[in-house]
Design brief:
about 100 residues, about 0% strand, mainly alpha, single chain
Length: about 100
Amino acid sequence: ANLRQSGESIGRVLTGFFGILEDVRRGSSDLHRDTERVKNSSRAVLAHMGELENNQREILGESLEMNGSIERFTGGTRRLEELSRDNHRSASILEAEIGKLGFRT
């Protein structure tokens, strides 16, 4: 009877042991699956960060281009102002010279 009880006891221990091994295998599979999900998510985040970086570069480039255009526009406006002043002076001089000739404007 002792031998049979010992055999049953060993059987229960082995069954428990194999159950634990199966739990470890399942846990390991779950961990592997979760690790793959994290890895894939990290790759997706990295790809999106790369897209954001490219978008920021494009925005910076367009901002610099717009800044250059504004500077050219401002320079053109200044030049128009100078030409207007020169034109006004020339008109005043011309008016004075015409006045010297006896003509009234």
